[in-house]
Amino acid sequence: KKDYKLVVIGGGTGGFAVTSKFAKKLGKGQIAVVEPNEEHYYQSMFTLVGGGLKTLEQAHRPTGSLLPDGVDWIKDSVAEFDAQNNFIVTQKGDKVRYDFLVIAMGIQLNYEKIKGALDALKHDPMVCSNYRPPFVSKTFEAIKNFKEGNAIFTLPNTPIKCAGAPQKIMYLADYHFRAMGKRHNANIYYRTSLPFMFTVKKYADALFEVAKNRGIDVAFRRCLIEVKHESKEAIFEDLENGNIETLKYAMLHLVPPMSCPDVLTKHKDIVDETGWVDVNKDTLQHKKYPNIFALGDCTNLPTSKTAAAVSSQSRVLQRNLNALLDGKPMKAVYDGYTSCPLITTKGKVIMAEFGFDQEPLETFPINQAKERRFMYHLKKDFMPHLYWKGLVKGHWNGPKYLRRILHLGMSK
Ligand code: FAD
Question: Of 253, 294, 283, 262, nearest to 100 (Cα)?
């Protein structure tokens, strides 16, 4: 079959959240999900995998097992969009027509943009990256095998998904080095392209204190541009003045530059001038094509790119697309909700939650910038269930109503 009421591109977090919400309403054979991968990864767990607190095995399920009844799975990649004529073309050359399209293609990892990074990830067991399996499997091995010297953690000069992840793994490494009695042999460096620890000041201040108290050497506006694994050197550019800093590493956790997928950016009618899918930030409807919606990491929504953000976005998208299908006005408005459980050591989390204006939008009526054990268990033990049983099944819409109840109706 090559003609659908709804086609969803991407079987990741956003793709399944939306597909599950519409499967019953639209009925058998009306929805197709286009996704090339056999395995679906719960990427938020990668920090815990790299930190030795979960296994990679626990972080994925077969894509087919998440597919709601009656939904067709097109096991292929999208190669072309023809938004004016309502069809997409897959890599294998199949033309698939739609009435409505949802784009949820995530973010592209551009490891090749750091000279020598892929070589180092391939050949040096002490170079790792939580952002992609199988590199994430190298992280805990590197932490365990660390003996002495510089342990370096980086954040690139582009938007990334889960902007807290590059430093969460650093705090877990710090924990393990201490537990193994090796911390005094380690110099931990955080080199970030950002001018601060985190986009929201409240959490940035708290994280700066954490880093200071752990004896971590932090430098802002430093961008990793090259890795020389034969000489074990990481080369950084100072983004303020162009100066070069070369650091020897014993262990290096690197995060690649990221972008909207190339298949999208080559279609200038689909992306905005900054190269992200151009949606209305209130409704999630495409600005040019009213029968296209998008959510998640590939969009230009001015908020932090997380699965938590996708949970709130999926509900807004559902309500607005439903309204459109029923010929009613679209009323749901996205508030920019996003969240980042910032693991600061084994057993502690600062739970960052905020909206469009970078203002905290906290669920619990307590100071969430404080390191808390309760939040750690929420992240490690509860959120995986919320993901597999709630979010990708279309049942979890973010904590908006819980937040209102816990704040006795006085929260946004
Ligand atoms: P994805 O879930 O990445 O899905 C995109 C899908 O599109 C993929 O399945 C891909 O195969 C598919 N696709 C790509 N190109 C094509 C194509 N051409 N044709 C068809 N399909 C295609 N979020 C949190 O909320 N909390 C956290 O603690 C957290 N920690 C993280 C830690 C790490 C290390 C990482 C990597 C991510 C973390 N995230 C976290 C972020 C979260 O995983 C993403 O924001 C979320 O998955 C975004 O959902 P998405 O649907 O936009 O993209």
Answer: 294
